[in-house]
Amino acid sequence: MPVKSPAPNWLEPHLPVCEAIVALFAPLAEVAVHDIRRDRIVGIWNPISGRKIGGRSLIEELPPYSEDARVIGPYPKVLADGRAITSVSVVLHNAKGVARGLLCINFDRSPFDATIDLLVRFAAPVEDRPAELFDKDWREQILLVVDEECRSRSLRRDRLTREQRLDLVRALDERGLFSTRNAAAHAGRALGVSRTTIYALLKEARS
After folding, report:
1. Is the pTM of this model over 0.85?
2. Which of 99, 108, 129, 185 makes a 20 to 30 Å CA pair with 191?
3. Nearest to 21, CA basis, from 36, 39, 2
4. 132 within domain boundaries
């Protein structure tokens, strides 16, 4: 049972919020409500920390906060099994405006940390391309120039405007990449347009 019945009066209005948070973020989020005066847990949902109702709140582990504070954090914590979590606490007040409880949301971010670590490994810098293998490959050169220009200008290749395509064609021409037969057709595939369009852009770029 998430809450020891009956719930304290100051907690009752917040129960739907506690249930909604866990319903949305389960199984990664734990919601725990602490009674500040008694230093006890009076409600807990999806207890990933292994804590229980009636257990000590250990409020002294929280970052320092003032009586009139509303939100504390986010701040980092670690579960007993080593999982890293991010926590944020909301100070709950009674009808007289006196702080009575803390609603703590503990979010297990370990699955995301593992994914980020994997992506970082794949995104690690690679060695430079061997010049003897690629410098004479005009098809590869066209693709690389288009990719580098799009990245440097934060452009999406499937959403290029005519002016942006014109700039890219100009960049290809400046590198002498249209001197080879079929280069226009290959550039058209790289930019998502026809060979005829590439010729028209190239004529405009040279004029």
Report:
1. no
2. 129
3. 2
4. yes
Q: How many CB atoms lie within 10 A of CB 137?
A: 12
Residue from 2, 17, 21 nearest 92 by CA: 17
Q: Mean pLDDT per 10-residue run, the chain (207 residues)?
A: 76 93 94 91 93 85 67 88 90 87 93 84 63 64 87 85 92 88 89 92 92
For residue 159 the two structure tokens come to: 């959403």
Structure tokens at 77: 């914590």
Domain boundary among 78, 110, 142: 110
Which residue from 80, 138, 146 is spatially nearest to 108, judged by alpha carbons? 80
Q: What order do you get walking across the sheet with 29-35 strand by strand?
A: 40-45, 29-35, 99-108, 84-93, 71-78
Residues 23, 67: one domain? yes
